[in-house]
Design brief:
Blueprint (H helix, E strand, L loop, with lengths): L4 E4 L12 E7 L7 H12 L3 E8 L4 H10 L4 E4 L13 E2 L1 H6 L4 E4 L4 E4 L2 H9 L3 H4 L3 E5 L3 H12 L4 E6 L2 H14 L3 E6 L2 H8 L4 E4 L24 E4 L8 H8 L3 E3 L1 H17 L5 H13 L3
Parallel strand pairs: 2-3, 2-4, 5-7, 8-9, 8-11, 9-10, 11-12, 12-13
Antiparallel strand pairs: 1-3, 4-6, 6-7
Keywords: Amino-acid biosynthesis, Aromatic amino acid biosynthesis, NADP, Oxidoreductase
GO molecular function, one term: NADP binding
Subunit structure: Homodimer.
Length: about 300
């Protein structure tokens, strides 16, 4: 394999692709990913001749990586940070939620075109559905301005959220995202730059907080953008980071008396929908959950 299109297999390396149908993951980094474990467990459980492989792709190799998967006859692939928005220009068509938010995490390769979907939105909605009463009319804080943040915003709006504030490292990007969703959704939005004062002021007024940044992800899992003093008791805090399952942010939220939603829940829900798109079969969700839990345990 080329240097820029390097695969990271979570299954024994003695296995070759052979006649298996290829499904991939492209992103950077991917060494923390448990998606190969989740999908390969599901394929094996149903006796499907599929193989899921993670590829770490450099920014300047994104286009060649996408074309390479097509040339290899792949069924499709997932897209993770930081390419959920950048990959759009290499696809032939966006549908459903991907078309709304211009961010893609799942691609289906058809005979003559590559179609982009976003299953993150459904993943967030299913993970937060038990807290719908809290979300109805709530003030929400989304940390981040990438594709995950866009998916979270659409999910929160559909669950009845009244106001969404985006906080990102680049203020102009946060404001641009806020303006984008204000025009498309029936919610109030704000966009702020990342600072300690902004986080404290906004977080204390919010019923729901979603971290859509990689902060707190293994191996840098000793970091959090918020401390317990900044989180309201009775609020709902979701971290899209799933490795570790309980991030430092979620530990702080638990100490503050908030309800915590692990990114592992969202991961499995979105993976199940991706599986359905690639195979047209009902996903074995319990098998996928068990595989995810076992896989993240290796990093402990």
């Amino acid at each position: 394999m080329t240097k820029a299109f390097r695969g990271s297999l979570s299954i024994p390396r003695r296995k070759s692709l052979g006649n298996k149908r290829l499904v991939g993951l492209i992103g950077r980094p991917v060494k923390h990913s448990v998606s190969p474990d989740i999908h390969n467990a599901a394929f094996d459980h149903l006796g499907l001749d599929y193989l899921y492989v993670a590829f770490e792709v450099k920014e300047d190799a994104l286009g060649p990586a996408v074309k390479g998967l097509r040339a290899l006859g792949a069924v499709g692939f997932n897209v993770t940070i930081p390419y959920k928005q950048a990959v759009v220009k290499f696809l032939d068509r966006l549908v459903d939620d991907a078309e709304v938010i211009k961010a893609v995490n799942t691609v289906v390769i058809e005979k003559d075109r590559m179609v982009g979907y976003n299953t993150d939105v459904l993943g967030v909605m299913k993970a937060l559905l038990p807290y719908k009463d809290v979300l109805n009319g709530c003030n929400a804080l989304i940390l981040g301005t990438g594709g995950g943040a866009s998916a979270a915003a659409l999910a929160l709006a559909r669950l009845g959220c009244g106001c969404i504030t985006f906080v990102g490292r680049v203020r102009s990007k946060a404001r641009r995202l806020a303006n984008f969703f204000r025009r498309r959704l029936n919610v109030s939005t704000n966009g702020l730059g990342l600072s300690a004062s902004n986080l404290s002021d906004v977080a204390k007024t919010c019923n729901v907080i979603v971290n859509a940044t990689p902060v707190g992800m293994w191996p840098n899992d000793g970091r959090s953008l918020l401390r317990k003093e900044q989180i309201r008791s009775g609020s709902v805090v979701m971290d899209m980071v799933y490795n570790p399952p309980e991030t430092l942010l979620l530990k702080e939220a638990r100490l503050a008396g908030a309800s915590c939603v692990s990114g592992l829940e969202m991961l499995v829900f979105q993976a199940a929908e991706s599986f359905r798109l690639w195979t047209s079969l009902d996903p074995p969700i319990e098998v996928m959950k068990a595989a995810a839990l076992e896989a993240v345990g290796r990093f402990a």
